[in-house]
């Protein structure tokens, strides 16, 4: 609190009443956060290369691919910001996708030696524990005086329902370790005497966060802007002393990050396969106001049916604080209201409650048609790239500060010399109340299911006999959003050694003709036929036009071989259909049906 309310200096840590308790709380925090993270990911660790997250198989497959891409960049020297190993031959703009290069590159040795599934399980585990530890470290050392208060904030910051829901496949929203550090360094830019140093450090953090997730960086920037305006309006007497070092630091931060990010951002917004906007409108994924008083499906007290009625998906349970915690947060606001900084935190949180509600207010699953502020700005650049309900993440961060500062205030009062017995009893009551409020939102292990086993043809590398250099490996069905998940895993577990057509990724609808963002490659007749088989489970009637289109599609994809795992759920229908389309029989090799087509002209 002193960092924001008083002169720009560090908070003076206090030993929670007993010598050595800082060290003790450090150990407690490390053990508890690690244990919780391992508990949450335990079912994934049971078979990281053979199990998938049941709530989000699509993104699970996508992140296996981006981890394999980072491995190829490190071990094979391929480009970081573009690849044609998926969506061949058009390729994918990796800067325009959540390629998590700041995470994938460091774990590339693990991906190389143990497989992308192990790297994914590791990143989710480290993301949860590391984010909690980051909140604990930053708040405990630089904002509050008692580590026990920071411990509570770390529990919430690392394991809030939004974190656990995104752990279902969204690595980019699970590894938020840099977020508390970004808030800390922004708070420091008003310090006189060190604006260049502060600006450089902030610029480096910004650069690193871009290569984890840009959406989160935008949330942090907007949160800091709203907080700063609120804080300055309540500290008009300090504007003269903070504006100069603040602006210098921001200019240095912009310059530092601008130089480091100039080329990557050019590739993202103007490079090959860039896109504009998202394939849905801002009113599709919004936060239901009623969801705040109920529990997420991955919380101990959660009810799947109720959560489904108030949330857009299992990976977007971004609110769901539960009524007891909402009441505790109101009490936190009252306890810390004397602090102008905490008033600004409360204002920031409430602003984002409103923004996350979307263009119109939704309550209890019903659109009230009451216009909200986002209605007027949702078309603006950058804002139109945001999934609206994710603005709730800023509310979660504001609550972490509230819990830390309110708990610190209660502990401080209880630790005053000769504190009345009633004050000490209130402190005990506070801890019990916080525990009762947080326990129902405690996370359950992520649900996983066995993935369709990868054919030995892929895992052994035997596929190379059928795919010459310059030709692609075509999974059957081709990888698409919601179907063809085996194809995404096939590409990842083949280490992207062979290019694969199509895929699940973000790209332009139709090259330079229509750059609107979409999750699919431009439609082709053969992939549509196979897609429909998986969707409906019925065999189509193949015509001469379909066979001619298949030849053209194989030529476009420069196909070397089509591969169908014999354990695919629709293997028989798919095998019959592809045989009819190609007019040639497959061979069964290593648990997969293979149609060798490298003899066809390209």
UniProtKB/TrEMBL annotation:
The chain crosses the membrane at residues 27-46, 120-139, 148-164, 170-187, 196-212, 218-234, 246-266, 319-337, 344-362, 382-406, 427-447. Residues 11-21 have a biased composition (Basic and acidic residues). The lineage of its organism: Bacteria, Bacillati, Actinomycetota, Actinomycetes, Micromonosporales. This is Glycosyl transferase. Keywords: Membrane, Transmembrane, Transmembrane helix. Residues 1-21 are annotated as: Disordered. It comes from the Bacteria. Signal peptide: none annotated.
């Amino acid at each position: 609190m002193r960092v924001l309310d008083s002169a720009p200096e560090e908070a003076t840590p206090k030993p929670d009443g007993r010598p050595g308790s800082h060290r003790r709380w450090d150990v407690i925090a490390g053990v508890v956060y690690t244990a919780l993270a391992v508990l949450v990911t335990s079912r994934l660790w049971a078979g990281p290369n053979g199990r998938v997250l049941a709530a989000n198989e699509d993104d699970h497959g996508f992140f296996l691919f981006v981890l394999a891409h980072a491995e190829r960049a490190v071990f094979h020297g391929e480009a970081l910001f573009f690849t044609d190993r998926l969506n061949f031959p058009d390729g994918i703009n990796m800067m325009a996708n959540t390629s998590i290069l700041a995470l994938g590159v460091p774990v590339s040795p693990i991906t190389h030696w143990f497989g992308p599934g192990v790297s994914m399980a590791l990143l989710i585990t480290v993301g949860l524990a590391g984010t909690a530890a980051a909140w604990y470290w930053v708040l405990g050392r630089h904002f509050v005086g008692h580590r026990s208060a920071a411990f509570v904030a770390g529990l919430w910051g690392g394991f809030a329902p939004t974190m656990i829901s995104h752990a279902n496949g969204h690595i980019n929203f699970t590894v938020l370790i840099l977020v508390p550090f970004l808030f800390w360094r922004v708070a420091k830019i008003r310090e006189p005497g060190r604006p260049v140093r502060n600006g450089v450090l902030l610029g480096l953090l910004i650069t690193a966060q871009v290569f984890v997730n840009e959406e989160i960086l935008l949330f942090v920037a907007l949160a800091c802007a709203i907080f700063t305006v609120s804080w300055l309006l309540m500290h008009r007497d300090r504007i003269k002393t903070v504006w100069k070092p603040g602006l210098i630091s921001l200019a240095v931060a912009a310059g530092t990050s601008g130089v480091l990010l100039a080329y990557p951002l050019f590739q993202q917004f103007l490079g090959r396969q860039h896109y504009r906007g998202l394939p849905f409108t801002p009113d599709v994924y919004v936060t239901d106001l009623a969801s705040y008083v109920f529990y997420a499906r991955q919380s101990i007290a959660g009810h799947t049916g109720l959560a489904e009625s108030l949330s857009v998906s299992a990976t977007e349970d971004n609110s769901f604080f539960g009524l007891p915690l909402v009441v505790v947060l109101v009490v936190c606001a009252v306890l810390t209201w004397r602090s102008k900084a905490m008033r600004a935190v409360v204002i920031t949180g409430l602003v984002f409650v409103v923004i996350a509600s979307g263009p119109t207010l939704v309550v209890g699953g019903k659109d009230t048609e009451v216009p909200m502020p986002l209605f007027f700005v949702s078309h603006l650049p950058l804002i139109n790239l945001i999934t609206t309900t994710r603005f709730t993440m800023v509310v979660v961060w504001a609550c972490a500060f509230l819990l830390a500062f309110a708990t610190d205030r209660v502990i401080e009062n209880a630790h005053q010399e000769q504190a009345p017995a009633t004050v000490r009893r209130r402190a005990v009551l506070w801890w019990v109340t916080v525990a009762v409020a947080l326990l129902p939102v405690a996370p359950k292990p992520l649900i996983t299911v066995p993935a369709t086993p990868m054919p030995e043809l892929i895992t052994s590398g035997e596929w190379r006999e059928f795919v010459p250099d310059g030709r692609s490996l075509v999974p059957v069905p081709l990888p698409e959003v919601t179907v063809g998940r085996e194809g995404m895993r096939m590409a990842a577990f083949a280490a992207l050694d062979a290019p694969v057509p199509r895929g699940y990724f973000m790209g332009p609808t139709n090259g330079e003709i229509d750059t609107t963002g979409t999750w699919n490659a431009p439609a082709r007749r053969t992939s549509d036929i196979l897609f429909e088989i998986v969707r409906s489970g019925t065999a189509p009637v193949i015509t001469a036009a379909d066979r001619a289109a298949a030849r053209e599609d194989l030529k476009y994809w420069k196909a070397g071989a089509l591969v169908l795992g014999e354990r695919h759920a629709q293997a028989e229908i798919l095998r019959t259909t592809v045989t009819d389309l190609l007019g040639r029989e497959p061979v069964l090799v290593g648990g997969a049906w293979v149609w060798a087509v490298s003899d066809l002209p390209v």
